[in-house]
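Please check what follows.
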Amino acid sequence: MNYSRQRESIKEYLMSTHEHPTADVIYQHVKEDYPKISLGTVYRNLTLLVDLGEVRKISTGDGTEHYDADTSAHSHYYCRCCHRVMDLEVTPSVDQILSASSAGLGTIEIASLLFTGVCKDCIIEQDKNL
């Protein structure tokens, strides 16, 4: 695989943020340094980074994919109101992983959880508007 400054810029941006941006947000950021980059190029590079295991893709169930440069074992919390994805230091237990492994479906390489709800900031905002 050839070195790509654009791919490196995408990866550096993801590593510099604790947010879990969408491809569109990444595109807007990288476009500042590479004005001629296309959204398609961003998507292709994100797919490659995910395939290489350098970036995690987080599907929230609403059709939007978020990306995370932290590939360590951790879970995520998705707010269905503000659509933010946040790190959550909850990981599946060894018993859960062993149970899933013994289900006969195949090997387990990555175990993660996605919790969905309404974040505390949105709850406070909703309470203000009542």
